Amino acid sequence: MSKTMTQVSSRGVLSALMGDAGWRDYYQVTKPKVVMLLLLTALVGACLAVNGLPPAGLLLAAMIGIGLMSSGAAAYNHLLDREIDARMMRTRGRPLVRGQLTAMRCFSFATLISVLGFAVLALWVNMLTAWLTAFSLVGYALIYTLYLKRATPQNIVIGGLAGAAPPLLGWTAMTGNVDPHSLLLVLIVFTWTPPHFWALAIHRRDDYAKVNMPMLPVTHGVAFTKTCILLYTVLLGLVCLLPYLTGMSHELYLLGSSLLNGAFLYYAWRLKFKANSGDAMATFKFSIVHLMLLFIILLTDHYLLA
Ligand code: HEM
Ligand SMILES: CC(C)=CCC/C(C)=C/CC/C(C)=C/COP(=O)(O)OP(=O)(O)O
């Protein structure tokens, strides 16, 4: 076959695979910003697991494997939620709703990257990490998305475990076993998740009510949800002391995390006691900055003071 004919036929195969979808549609269903933050928490877990720098090849394989499987989980979530996504303002522009990406293509893509991710972890990291990541994928893509989300206002408290797993996954990738210190990092993300999500759920309450999604502000009201956010933020402040109290982290972490948790508490207090329509969204946005900085501080403390 001539070079031009080969180019034409490979372009034909590619366009048959892509259909109306562009790279951007595949990228969007992976929830890239969420996965970036999940990977930061996994990276910190991996670095805290070892003395000095983690072996570069092992770290790269772990990040690729965890990243692919988290992206796969996010793509399954887009697939399984496409009908409710079509009815909510926030999500109605998603690729499966617009018809840019077919359900079959999304399923194939999610399966391909999830299996690839599992293979990378199984071949180049270790089986414990591969299976723990697979459980997290099933926890988010199936148990949370298909069942919990639609069943109970405690959906994200229970479902939050999957999103909180990456620091443990990063840690086990380096050591091959579950260290109690890694569970402290999981506990931090786990306690952070309810205020993170409920702040957004207050802002989007009408959207969730419209599709009968039992999110806390819909089932128990906005005032009660604000109280829960405040209580979880206090709990998060206490949980964040544990890395210092158990000797895992040092004074830099104690100072940095106390400032961040003080600021989070201020947002939660303002949301509860000073009614202002923009406060819920401001609290949601701050939660993301909070978790990102908290893990950067954990890492800095580890390398400067360990
Ligand atoms: C069950 C647990 C969680 C729930 C229910 C939840 C829910 C949400 C929702 C509904 C959004 C808005 C997405 C949008 O605007 O389209 C969001 C955004 C976000 N979440 Fe979460 N989240 C959870 C856990 C996490 C975890 C564990 C992380 C990272 C460690 C995370 C990081 C983010 C980031 C970075 C964004 C902003 C995404 C963007 O701007 O595109 N979330 N979350
Ligand atoms: C392998 C592994 C670590 C898996 C975890 C993967 C993952 C993407 C966790 C993040 C949790 C999250 C964004 C929940 C929101 O879903 P939602 O359906 O409530 O939000 P939506 O309405 O914006 O889709």
From TrEMBL:
Q: Does the keyword Calcium belong to this entry?
A: no
Pathway named in the protein's UniProt entry:
Porphyrin-containing compound metabolism; heme O biosynthesis; heme O from protoheme: step 1/1
| Lineage of the organism | Bacteria, Pseudomonadati, Pseudomonadota, Gammaproteobacteria, Alteromonadales
Q: Which GO terms describe its molecular function?
A: protoheme IX farnesyltransferase activity
Bilayer disposition of the protein = Multi-pass membrane protein
Q: Does the keyword Cell cycle apply?
A: no
Protein's recorded name? Protoheme IX farnesyltransferase
Organism encoding this protein: Corallincola holothuriorum
Class of this enzyme: transferase
Q: Which family does it belong to?
A: Belongs to the UbiA prenyltransferase family. Protoheme IX farnesyltransferase subfamily.
